[in-house]
Structure formats: C-alpha cells, structure tokens
Amino acid sequence: MAGKIPTAEEVIALVAAGDGGMQQLIAQAQAQQAQALAEAQAQAVAQAQAQHHALVQHAVASAADAAMADVHMAVDSAALGVHGGKMDASAMEFMPLSGATVVDNAHSMGGDLASAAAPGDVESSMDGGTANGGNNISSNSLAIKRKSIPLSMKKEAIEWIMGPGKGIPSRAEKHFSALHWDVSASSFRKWWKNRDKILGDSSHKKRITGGGRKPYLENSEEKLLVIVIQERAKKDRVTRKWIAKTAQHMFQRTNANFKASENWVTKFIRRNGLTLKRSYVTYEQQQQPPLSGAAALVADEDGHLEIDDDDDGEDAGAGGVDATGIDESMGVDGVVEQASDHSRDPELHDDGAAGAAEVHEDEERKTVLV
Question: How far apart are CA 126 and CA 311, in angstroms?
C-alpha cells in the first residue's frame, strides 16, 4: 500500500525544521571557533609577557653585575694606590666616577683601606650625589606662587599710565621694572581695562568689589534669600535647620551632589548679612555655691545679661541651649545676638556674697533670624 503523500504545509514545516537545525549547528561551530581563537590569543599574550619579564630580569641582572664589577675595580685600584703610595695614571683614567670618588676620599683622609674603600661607602657616595641632584632639581622646579598685589599699587600704576604713560599700558612694564616691580605687561593691561573699578574702591583692599570666586549655586542662593526675607516679613520663625532643609530641597533639583551642611549654612548667613538672635533670660543673684559647668552670667553696659555657656554642653536653666549658646534647631555655628521680647531689667539682689547666681527663665527661649 502506497504511503501517504505529505501536504505542502508539512513539507514547509520539515524544511523550516531542517533550516533551524542547520543554523544551530552553524552557530555552535562559530562559537567553538571564536573560543579557540580567544584561547590562542590569550596564550600568545601570556607567552609575550613571559618573554618580556625574562628580558627585564636579564637586563636588571646584567646591570647589577656591571655595577658590582665597577665597584670591585674601584676598590682594587684604591688598594693599589694606597699601599703603593701613588696610583697609575692609566688606572685613574679608566676608573669609574664612583671609584674615583672613593680614591680621592682615601687619599684625603689617610685612613685604612677597609673604611675608605668599602662597598657601602661607594654606594652611599653615589646615593648622596643623586640625592643632592634631586634636591637641586626639585628646588628649581618649584612652581612660582601667585602674588597678591594691593589696590594701592594698582592705582599707582594706573595713575602713571594716565600721566607719563600717555594712556598706553604696555609702557608701564619697563618703567616699573626699573622700580623692581615684578609685574607682567598683561597685568598692567588688565588693570588699565578695569581702571574705573580699581580707582573707585578703597586702597586698603586687595581685590576689587565683585572679584574672587563666586558663591556655589549663586542664583539659587539669591532665590533662597528672597524666601527667607518673605518668611521674616510674615513674622514666621526661621532657624538654621529650616534654612538647611529648604536649601537641600531647592538645590537638589539642579545639583544632586549638593549637601546643606552646617558649614554651608554658616557661610550663607555670613555672606548675606543675616543675624541670629535669642531672647534674654533674667536671673536672681543669691547666696549659693557657684554653679559648676552650667552658665556664666556677665552683665553688659545696658544692664542686660549675656549667657556664655561653657564647653561641657550642659543647659543653662531649663532651656535647650547647646555649648555654643544657640538653639538646638539652629545647628552648631552662627552669629548670636540676645534680644528680649519684653523689655524687663533683671532684678539684682546683692547681699555681699561673691559671684553666686541661679538662672530662672521667665519665657521660652527661641531663636529667630533677622
């Protein structure tokens, strides 16, 4: 009985299966060839590295042998010169420099041969020469530090250019070089270009207004300062901690690496002329032993009292003030002023006792930013 004739779909499926199997075999063969090629290349690289290492070791050994031969020849020549009372000129001519140094030392010192011509002495003399040469090179190659020239000198140069220099800054270099000014012509041209700013600033300053490095994220700092001013205009409390959190939230949008550290907050406050203030604290002076490490009370000219907390960090009275005298929410540093919401003078009761004090807080301490 004749077999069943396959349909066209079955034929196509068989052909596709055969093609897939063939492609798989070809891919396996290509992978094996690539692996074999990579192994061959790795083996060739390893052999080349081994040969290079062997050549380097051979060169180092040859150099060491040559150096030792020079040292031994120098020692032998020195021995002949010392014992014979004189040295052959031909031997001195062909002697290495290190050996000649040993021979000269032996003749000048007149010591025994062992101390004058030891290999250690030869090596030390060679090392000493190298060290001295290295020091000379290092001293000569030191970079020239930039000089800070005060505004008074810049004004003097600008005035000379305006007068005898007839408005040509390049003429100033020759004139002031005779006065032992170590200033380049480019500096004079730069000063002449900025003469309006330089002449407008005070002479005791070293750089013109607006010079130097600009603050980090200057535009964002200006926005933060505007927010601080708006918060204070609404009589809202602004602390160092609030500034740090607000800056961190604002600046991370433009720079993910920014960190509002305590040092940054302190510099931000100083750059923008902000002042940290705290309320006054009243006290009564009584006849008690002095407080140990709590607070030292000192009266100012107006009769008010400033609190200077000591280094142990204990609280003065019941307030939450750290060792710097600043509210804990403020951080560590800052410019501190003490102010009172109620203009009350402290009551002082002096019964003759020496320097005893006890702190009583009439109101909660707070830190505000003005």
Answer: 57
Helix axis angle, 185-193 relative to 151-162, nearest 10°?
80
Most distant pair of Cα atoms in the chain: their distance: 138
Measure the CA–CA gap between 144 and 127, rounded to whole angstroms. 29
What distance in Å separates the CA atoms of residue 326 and residue 313, rounded to the nearest whole number?
11
Best CA proximity match to 347, nearest among 302, 288, 297, 284: 284
Q: Work out the burial of residue 104: count CB atoms within 10 Å of its CB; fewer than 13 is exposed, 13-18 middle, 19 or more buried.
A: middle
Report strand pairing: 305-308 vs 367-369: unpaired
Copy the structure tokens of residue 127: 């090392």
Instruction: Give residues with Cβ within 8 angstroms of 73, minimum separation 6.
Output: 95, 96, 99
Q: Which residues pair with 278 in a beta bridge?
A: 338, 367
CA 234 from chain centre, in angstroms, equals 41
Alpha carbon distances (Å) from 47 to 34, 37, 51, 61, 215: 20, 15, 6, 21, 57
DSSP state of 330: G
Amino acid at 126: M
Q: Are the C-beta atoms of 317 and 281 separated by less than 8 Å?
A: yes
- Give me the helices (H) in the chain, please: 8-84, 89-94, 97-109, 113-116, 119-140, 151-162, 171-178, 185-193, 195-200, 218-233, 240-251, 262-271
Query: What's the whole-model pTM score?
Result: 0.26
Do the Cβ atoms of 277 and 268 come closer than 8 Å? no
- pLDDT of 74 strictly over 80: no
Contacts of 127 (CB under 8 A, 6+ apart): none
Which band of pLDDT confidence, cut at 50, 70 and 90, is reported for residue 218? low
For residues 107 and 114, give the distance between their C-alpha atoms in angstroms, rounded to a whole number.
13
User: β-strands 283-284, 276-279: how paired?
Assistant: unpaired
CA distance 69 to 75: 10
Give the pLDDT confidence of 324-351 residue by residue, as tens digits. 333 433 433 333 333 333 333 443 344 4
Dist. CA 195–CA 193, nearest whole Å: 6
